[in-house]
Specification:
Largest sheet: 5 strands, mixed
Shape: globular
Number of helices: 14
Order of helices and strands: EEHEEHHHHHHHHHEHHHH
Radius of gyration: 19 Å
Number of strands: 5
Helix content: 40-55%
Number of domains: 2
């Protein structure tokens, strides 16, 4: 969550958030009020919700998001080992991120990340403790954790009892008004800036800056295969389709 004087960006992990944050620093004259990366709007407490500010977030195709998360981990194995070595032998961790056979490794990793018994043993976040991991995908959970109000209290099984309950929960508790799609991030951000230029004190050259930086934009995950579809087989495709069905439907994504 990056809060400015008149707007707030809810920076969901691996949705182009780093690029977006860098752009915002360049294109607005407003100072940053608060900055808690990948956190909800209400992290600061019951009176932390800013009134009258424009709130937006970024989203990404779930199938692509999982590949990005896996690829990032494969390039940061030292950090990954610190999380997983207590529950897996080192050689098993390396198999999960084996870039010499990325399709096999990714598919095994995807199944492992969505095994509730496994996630409950190692994840140092509220996904396991929420008791939602039996039916909610990791991406859907992380999205809701950043974009809904008071997720540490409400994002739990006692409020979301089944996959069918995710949609009404999101509708009641979402904290954002606008969505920027990672697949057309520069275009959507430019439209947002044009619409709110005066109110959010965007600079006169903001649109040109967005276009110029788009040319230099890079995917930092360093994937061994180019297209995300190459990583999936029918089983892994169906796993994401089932567990992140709410997100796919809500934002109109397809494989």
């Amino acid at each position: 969550m990056i809060e400015y004087e008149n707007f707030v960006y809810l920076d969901v992990y691996r949705t182009g958030s780093r690029h977006t944050i860098k752009l915002l620093r360049r294109i607005t004259d407003e100072p940053t009020v608060r900055a808690w990366r990948h956190s909800s709007l209400t992290k600061g407490g019951p009176f932390a919700t800013p009134r009258g500010k424009i709130v937006f977030t970024t989203v990404r195709n779930p199938w692509d998001w999982y590949v990005s998360l896996w690829s990032y981990g494969s390039r940061n194995l030292e950090a990954i080992h610190r999380y997983l070595n207590d529950v897996l032998p080192a050689y098993e961790v390396e198999r999960l991120y084996d870039t010499s056979d990325p399709q096999k490794a990714f598919r095994k990793w995807l199944r492992t990340m969505h095994d509730p018994d496994f996630s409950n043993r190692f994840m140092q976040e509220y996904y396991p403790q929420s008791h939602l991991s039996s039916f909610m995908g990791l991406y859907t959970y992380r999205f809701l954790r950043v974009t809904t109000r008071y997720p540490r209290f409400f994002l739990h099984r006692w409020r979301i009892r089944s996959a069918a309950a995710i949609k009404p929960f999101h509708a009641r508790r979402k904290a954002y008004e606008f969505v920027i799609f990672n697949e057309k991030l520069s275009e959507d951000l430019a439209a947002f800036v044009s619409r709110h230029s005066d109110r959010c004190r965007f600079k006169s050259d903001a649109l040109e800056t967005i276009r110029r930086r788009d040319v230099k934009r890079l995917n930092s995950s360093g994937r061994p295969l180019t297209g995300y579809r190459q990583y999936y087989d029918d089983e892994s495709h169906a796993l994401v389709a089932r567990r992140d069905a709410f997100f796919i439907d809500e934002f109109g994504y397809s494989f």
